[in-house]
């Protein structure tokens, strides 16, 4: 972090003053700090936070270039499940009788000694077709797992279908036998 000399107590007092602003006073303060009108879609709370951040940056300095570059790279990633992987994590996937091992590195992902920028690139190299890397390596988010579980709960299990079959047949309808795909689901 690039350091500047400033009185922390004075900065804390200024931030406290910014927290108390509202309405036109808050928008006027934004114009003074940023030199332009505030965006229409930002809430008052967000305006206060951004002004406080700018006050701290001007007083204490900003992050160094390497940290800003790292944060920019993290923000540009489109794969939330990949963000949570810690450096050194090893992903293993068996595909067509062969075990594939991927190691998470700071710069990306290493598979068979070669560095890749994304898991999708590795999945494409392994399969020869376009794959979602997180899906290929079974890195579904908890939200995706929950929605998948909800879908499975809505589908009647084979036992329930078998129990309903006599009642459905009494009504003169037939019930198809469960498919082999449905029986393989968990």
Explain this structure to me?
There is one protein chain. This protein is of the alpha+beta class. The protein has helices at residues 8-20, 23-34, 44-60, 65-76, 80-83, 119-127, 133-136, 142-154, 158-170, 180-184, and strands spanning 90-95, 98-104, 109-111, 114-116. A four-stranded antiparallel β-sheet has the order 1-2-3-4, with helices on one face. Strand 2 (98-104) and strand 3 form a beta hairpin. Helix 1 packs antiparallel against helix 3 (44-60) and helix 2 (23-34) packs parallel to helix 3 (44-60). The radius of gyration is 28 Å and the shape is elongated. The two termini are 51 Å apart.
Radius of gyration: 28 Å
The largest β sheet comes out as: 4 strands, antiparallel
Shape: elongated
Put simply, the count of helices is 10
Low-confidence stretches: 178-186
The helix-strand sequence is HHHHHEEEEHHHHH
Could you give the order of strands across the largest sheet?
A: 1-2-3-4
Q: If you average the pLDDT, what whole number results?
A: 78
Strand tally, please? 4
Structural class: alpha+beta
* Fraction of residues in helix: 40-55%
Strand residues, percent: 5-15%
Spatial gap, N to C terminus: 51 Å
Please describe the topology of this protein:
Elements: H1 8-20, H2 23-34, H3 44-60, H4 65-76, H5 80-83, E1 90-95, E2 98-104, E3 109-111, E4 114-116, H6 119-127, H7 133-136, H8 142-154, H9 158-170, H10 180-184
Antiparallel strand pairs: 1-2, 2-3, 3-4
Helix pairs in contact: 1-3, 2-3
In short:
This protein is of the alpha+beta class and 186 residues long. 55% of the residues lie in helices and 10% in strands. It contains ten helices and four strands; from the N terminus they run αααααββββααααα.
């Amino acid at each position: 972090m690039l350091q500047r000399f400033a009185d922390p107590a004075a900065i804390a007092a200024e931030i406290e003053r910014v927290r108390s602003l509202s309405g036109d006073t808050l928008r006027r303060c934004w114009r003074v700090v940023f030199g332009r009108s505030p965006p229409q879609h930002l809430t008052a709370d967000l305006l206060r936070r951004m002004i406080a951040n700018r006050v701290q940056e001007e007083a204490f300095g900003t992050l160094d270039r390497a940290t800003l570059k790292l944060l920019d790279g993290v923000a540009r990633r489109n794969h939330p499940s990949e963000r949570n992987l810690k450096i050194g994590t090893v992903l293993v996937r068996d595909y067509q009788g062969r075990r594939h091992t991927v190691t998470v590195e700071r710069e990306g992902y290493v598979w068979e000694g070669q560095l890749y920028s994304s898991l999708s690139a590795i999945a494409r190299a392994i399969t020869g077709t376009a794959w979602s890397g997180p899906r290929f390596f079974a890195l579904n988010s908890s939200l995706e797992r929950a929605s998948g579980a909800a879908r499975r709960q809505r589908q009647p299990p084979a036992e329930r279908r078998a129990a309903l079959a006599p009642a459905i047949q009494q009504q003169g309808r037939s019930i198809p036998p469960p498919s082999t795909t449905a029986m393989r689901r968990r």
